[in-house]
Amino acid sequence: MQKYIFLKRGLLFFRHMRFLWTLGFIVTLCTTGLAQQNKISGYIKDASTNQALPGVNVYVDELKQGAATDGNGFYTFSVPDGKYHLHISMISYKDSIIAINLTKDIKISVALPPDAVNEKTVNVVGQKANNNVQSAKMGTITLEVGDLKAIPVFFGEQDILKVIQLLPGVQSAGDANTGFYVRGGGPDQNLVMIDGATVYNAGHLLGFFSIFNSDALNSVSLIKGDMPANYGGRISSVLDISAKQGDMEQIHASGGIGLIASHVTVQIPIKKDTSAFIFSARRTYIDLFLQKPFIPASSAFSGTSYYFYDLNGKLNYNFSAKNQLSITGYYGQDAFTFSDADVGFSTHVPWGNAIVSANWNHIFSDKLLATTSLSYTDYNFRFTGAENGFNFTLFSGIHDYHAKVNFDWIPNKKNHIKYGLENTFHVFIPSAISAQEPNVNFNTSDVVHLYGNEAGAYITDEYSLSELIKMEGGLRYSLFDQVGPFTRYNQNPFGQTTDTVTYKSLQKVAQYGGLEPRFSIRYILSENSSLKAGYSRNYQYIHLASISSISLPTDVWIPCTSLIPPSIGDQYSLGYYHNFRDNMFESSVEVYYKHMDNLIEYKDGVTPEANASSDPDENFTLGSGQAYGAEFYLKKRVGKFNGWIGYTLSWTTENFPDLNNGQTFYAKYDRRNDISVVANYELNSRWTVSAVFVYATGNALTVPDAWYVVEGQLVEQYGARDGYRLAPYDRLDLSATYTTDPKKRALRVEQRWEKRHGDSTAAYVDHRPTWVKNLHTSWSFSVYNVYDRFNPYFIYINISGSVYSNTLTIEAKQVALFPVLPSVSWNFDF
Fold it and tell me: For residue 777, which of 191, 632, 693, 771 sits 20 to 30 Å off, Cα-Cα?
């Protein structure tokens, strides 16, 4: 049934896509006929890794005209006939200057070699030096994954989401948790994608690690401000991740061994300069430590274990200079098993993601590029428990079928236009329960599936009005249909079903939609400073139902229904950007205000298990919220000493008429102050040391503030919603990385040989295999939470004694997860 629904919706989508392809072809003919200038285009890649380089600055020196490469390393622009010097530059890479005599359209592709002086420094933004000043975009940061190896790690595992949390405007969800909040928005308000496919749960080990193996990633872009119109479906941010392409010239391998996990990545060229495959795998061995040293076979807890693993793969194939295909796959699972033979209880909890995406890039001309994407996402969670013959299962999930076509059109040097459409068919299982005893099956109602179709069409234009003023304006129209099969159970105030309304397959149950304008403008104040302003409206048609302040696999996704309208976010922002010391230092101040309508929360007294009811959308109530604040950012870009300081001052409040007596309260992810300091220093060619310090206002939560004895039972009374705060969070992490040099290692081998044999022997010949000669290794030593700060993870109420004997004691106890934690990992690359 699901496949039938998707195919039927897919036919409608591809009719629209065929129209856009036709439009693209017409645009190509028009622009070709009107062109008066010659076009320069090509691809830029890293000479050492053969990976595409996004954000490279390519321009003509004499005219100061050019463009930056896109996510595929592609650039294109037009200039008049003449003799010029084409300048290609990027931080941490050697500049390339090429003399050209332009009389016709030309293609120039270049492999940039890393700069030997800066190749070991940590570079946060991989774009041209003053891109933050020149661009019209606000709140956008691009991270080069390969430049983050010096930052202290948790248990020896590099994690891109941990670095995201160190940026201003981004708050952590908790100690060592990969969940993050952006400008007062919840975790479900962040669109996380890898190669165009949506990721619904990005955490392992209850969020302590992300599912993203950094060895398999190329770059990460975070848009926390005014997102362009080609993104939609979330009201807070976009985290767009691109997976690494395989090396098309030679076999390349890298990996590492840490305290709790190991990982390996292999790049294999299939056909030189045409196709390659990259495969990456990671697995923990926590289960091995638990089962053998700490839980012997004779123990009642024998069989208790936990582990997770990731598998990443990507195939790239260049059919021609104008056609490129990439197929990305990911599969990862967590598995937790607990057993207590003494009481006859056991449980098994697996959860994970399966993702596959295909992206086809087609160049119509040097002015028009089309990208067609197809993807499938499957996230599922299952809890199975058994006790003395009674079996209980709770499961939930979400499946997405997504298709998108996007056109990049550059009609002239002043305009860069993107337009396209996309469609996603969602299948939700909010929660389902089954239970049985020997010879008895409990009827817990049928598994509830909810179906929704989300579509969007957009156009956006980045327009240079003058050298001082650049604008980016866009318009997106989105539409969401909840469709059948679906049954609405109408109930009376006593919870009894009075009648039902049944909808057939693909029959419309509820429909929502609206226009989403986006606009930003940049005004150059001087060569090194600019002022920017922006506004954006976003619709969000799916919601994450959560009680905890941290993201857990038990959280469930709920679509818009006749009872749940879409969330709407309106954000206004203003920023000042200034670089100094020849772009060595970068600074910015951004202020923002965001209003959010139709937020959802569980009704009082409702728990996540209630989602298994016939109509799970009846368990929620609606409200509004607002967030505002200021973000301060200072970064030293290059040099032996580099890093950044980020500070966020913010407020986030919510109001739900049915909660907290209708009074406004601070959201559970409200943070007044959030500070991050990142510092890296290259001692010499072998040693690099790093430090990270973070401070944040404590999480808000709801706790009981009074207890009463009613008919012999102790009854608690809760205080104001989110009216209590945990203690502030602060932590210092340190790390040191020791890197070997293959050339120096070869020299030491030769010196030892000569010392052993003397001058009378034949000349030394290095017979080692090539991969050994090129082997780079490093040791990373990290200390997490250096001064052993007991940061609160959660609190619980401990009740002991009796009210009748006057021995009743009620106290709140704080739970802290991690003390000081040293770790070591060994990494290799050849």
Answer: 693
Tokens of 64: 């100061």
Mean pLDDT of 434-439: 59
- The torsion angle over the Cα atoms of residues 134, 139, 143 and 149, rounded to 10 degrees, is 120
Main-chain dihedrals φ then ψ at residue 3, nearest 5 degrees: -65, -40
| Contact assessment for residue 160 and residue 210, using Cβ atoms and an 8 Å cutoff | yes
Label each residue of 669-694 as H, E or C: CCCCEEEEEEEEEECCCCEEEEEEEE
What region does 167 belong to: left with phi over 0, alpha with psi -120 to 50, or beta? beta
Select from 426, 402, 542, 432 the least CA-distant residue to 483. 426
CA distances 376 to 200, 396, 810, Å, are 12, 17, 50
Q: Is residue 792 within 8 Å of residue 748, measured between CB atoms?
A: no
Q: Diameter of the chain by CA atoms? A: 103
H helices of 79-146, in order, are 131-134
Q: What is the CA radius of gyration of the chain?
A: 28
Q: Please say whether the beta carbons of 757 and 706 come within 8 A.
A: no
Q: Note whether 521 and 471 are within 8 A (CB).
A: yes
Retrieve residue 692's tokens: 């990270």
d(CA 498, CA 485): 20
Q: How far is CA 767 from each of CA 120, 251, 743, 771, 772, rounded to the nearest angstrom?
A: 29, 20, 14, 11, 10
Q: Hey, is 543 helix, strand or coil?
A: strand
Distance CA 498, CA 492 (A): 7
Ordered DSSP codes for 246-294:
PPSSS-EEEEEE-SSEEEEEEEEEEETTTEEEEEEEEEE-HHHHIIIII
Q: Whole-number mean pLDDT of the chain?
A: 79
- Nearest 5°: the CA angle 474, 480, 486 is 175
- Per-residue pLDDT tens over the stretch 343-383: 566 777 788 889 999 999 998 887 888 999 999 999 888 77
How far apart CA 186 and CA 611 sit, in angstroms, is 20
The rounded distance, in Å, linking the Cα atoms of 258 and 256 is: 7
**What does the pLDDT average to over 251-274?**
86
457 residue type, one letter: A
Distance CA 495, CA 498 (A): 9
> pLDDT tens for residues 22-53?
444 443 434 333 344 677 878 888 776 667 77
Q: What is the pLDDT of residue 327?
A: 93
Question: Bridge partners of 733?
Answer: 692
Residue 303 in contact with residue 346, Cβ under 8 Å? yes
Contact 335, 317 (CB under 8 A): no
Please state the rounded mean pLDDT for residues 416-428.
92
Q: Amino acid identity of 802?
A: S
User: pLDDT, tens digit, for every residue of 790-815?
Assistant: 888 777 777 777 777 777 787 777 77
DSSP string, 230-257: T--S-SSEEEEEEEPPPPSSS-EEEEEE
- In 542-584, where do the E strands start and end? 542-545, 556-559, 567-580
Residue of 373, 463, 374 lying closest to 418 (CA atoms)? 463
Helices (H), 160-226: 160-164
| Omega cis (within 30) before 293 | no
Q: What is the mean pLDDT of residues 750-770?
A: 63
Q: How far apart are the C-alpha atoms of 147 and 131, rounded to whole Å?
A: 18
Tell me the C-alpha to C-alpha distance, in Å, between residue 720 and each of 537, 658, 699, 728.
31, 13, 15, 20
Task: Judge residue 811's burial from the number of C-beta atoms within 10 Å of its C-beta, 0-12 exposed, 13-18 middle, 19 or more buried.
Answer: exposed
Task: Write the CB contacts of 170 (distance below 8 Å, at least 6 apart in sequence).
Answer: 164, 180, 181, 182, 222, 224
